[in-house]
Amino acid sequence: MSVLYIALPIALLLGGAGLIACLYCIRDGQYDDLDTPSVRILVDERRVDESTRGPEKKHAD
């Protein structure tokens, strides 16, 4: 029973710290855009100049 006097306040403090950290991240804007980071690797931001590009291989049909 005496363990509850130690474990319960520690659990409440850890839960409160987690809640405060979560609210801080939400207000800071960390969760605003969840789609762009996963798609960013698929988007090629550099444009390739067609005149400096090497000859492309054509497939015979």
TrEMBL record:
InterPro entries: Cyt_oxidase_maturation_cbb3. The chain crosses the membrane at residues 6-26. The keyword Disulfide bond does not apply. Keywords: Membrane, Transmembrane, Transmembrane helix. It comes from the Bacteria. This is Cbb3-type cytochrome oxidase assembly protein CcoS. The gene is ccoS.
